[in-house]
Write a structure and sequence with these properties.
Layout lengths: L7 H12 L7 H9 L3 H25 L5 H9 L1 H33 L6 H15 L4 H26 L19 H10 L7 H4 L9 H27 L1 H4 L5 H7 L12 H30 L7 H5 L1 H8 L5 H32 L16
Helix pairs in contact: 1-7, 1-10, 1-13, 2-3, 2-8, 2-10, 3-8, 3-10, 3-16, 4-5, 4-16, 5-6, 5-13, 5-15, 5-16, 6-13, 6-15, 7-10, 7-13, 8-16, 12-13
């Protein structure tokens, strides 16, 4: 039996909960490092660059509504070049999954469970993700829908409450001191949106694939708007120079925020609870994308075979960075290089598909597709 059950709203929530993840903690630091007070502007430009990649993958998905990028790329560029491209996608998201798990572990053992071995926290989160990926696309969407309000509402509340401590003078000059290094900051911020590549496996399960662009647009507006607000609030409270000295500026922002009437004097504990949920949804999506792409590459109908098979390799990759500083250096470098996979490769596929007039089978509103 075939199903196409993902709605436009569900696709939006999947994208938002995938994008909002572990990178929310160091985001202001990444943006402010080279841009200074222009960090909100850099975040906006990074968001626009990220939307370029999401737009490309969505256009391709609408053009080939029954298939993921691994499945339709051979029809566009040939079997062997497509296999190389698919392996790059799989390898990139496997590395991205491992780095997400490692960053989660570093934050947990630093801020919460200080006596817990790093390997334990990383392995537990990876196991949780591996078990969760043994589901179909419908359950995958339900999980994201369930956690979506738990992610968005608390973060917006914390940011809104923190604005009472902000000083607009810290955000001036708005344009900062532009230099060539700011480009690298834009790329780093754009890399935080790379989880939106999950759209390639969401579109084949949507009831109305032609509405996928609306989902993409709403998702980038919500997640991008949230990221810009977080960066602006952090810079407004701490200032650009002090933010550069903070490893996790967003967590420090939560520490300085309190509920009215001092019901809670610090919101960092509540924020970390929300952040753990955000990490899980992001890790869940990147792991799911990795194993689904593997199953598509080998022409398998079921991806469960790879749920635990990939786990040891991802765990080993997560343990390779020697310390937290090296980890963040690797994260930034991998994220920038990954833009070629998530933006340049889909762009190349779209151009060739248009030139060669390649399209997938069109689906009607009531058509079905196996998730």
């Amino acid at each position: 039996m075939f199903y196409r059950q993902i709605t436009k709203i569900q696709a939006t929530t999947i994208l938002v909960s995938t994008i909002i993840g572990v990178g929310i903690l160091p985001l202001p630091l990444f943006a402010v490092r080279e841009a200074g007070s222009a960090a909100p502007l850099v975040t906006l430009l990074g968001t626009l660059l990220a939307f370029t990649g999401l737009w490309l993958i969505t256009i391709l998905g609408i053009r080939f509504p029954n298939q993921s990028i691994v499945e339709y790329s051979p029809a566009i560029i040939g079997k062997w070049p497509a296999a190389v491209g698919s392996l790059l996608i799989i390898g990139f998201f496997a590395v991205l999954t491992s780095l997400t798990a490692r960053e989660f572990g570093e934050v947990v053992i630093t801020a919460v469970l200080k006596r817990t071995p790093l390997e334990v926290t990383v392995l537990v989160m990876l196991l949780l993700s591996a078990v969760s990926t043994r589901q179909d696309m419908r359950t995958f969407a339900y999980i994201h829908n369930f956690y979506f309000p738990m992610l968005l509402v608390p973060v917006l509340l914390i940011v809104a409450l923190s604005l009472k401590n902000a000083d607009t003078i810290n955000l001036q000059p708005v344009y900062g001191n532009f230099s060539g290094k700011i480009i690298s900051s834009i790329f780093t911020v754009a890399a935080l949106f790379q989880g939106s590549f999950i759209m390639t496996i969401v579109i084949p399960s949507m009831r109305q694939a032609h509405l996928a662009m609306k989902s993409s647009l709403w998702a980038i507006l919500i997640s991008g708007g949230l990221y810009i607000t977080i960066v602006a609030a952090t810079i407004g409270v701490f200032g650009a120079e002090e933010t550069k000295l903070l490893l996790w500026p967003t967590l420090e922002l939560a520490k300085t925020t309190s509920l009215p009437a001092n019901i809670l004097e610090r919101l960092d504990a509540a924020f970390l609870g929300v952040w753990v949920t955000a990490v899980f949804t992001t890790l869940f999506s990147s792991y799911y994308l990795t194993i689904r792409s593997l199953s598509n590459l080998f022409g398998l109908r079921n991806h469960n075979l790879f749920s635990y098979f990939v786990l040891p390799f991802v765990f080993i990759l997560a343990m390779l960075p020697e310390n937290i500083l090296q980890m963040y250096e690797i994260i930034q470098n991998v994220g920038r290089v990954g833009l070629f996979v998530t933006i340049a490769y889909p762009g190349l596929l779209l151009i060739i598909a248009i030139l060669r007039k390649k399209r997938g089978d069109q689906v009607g509103q009531g058509a079905d597709k196996n998730p």
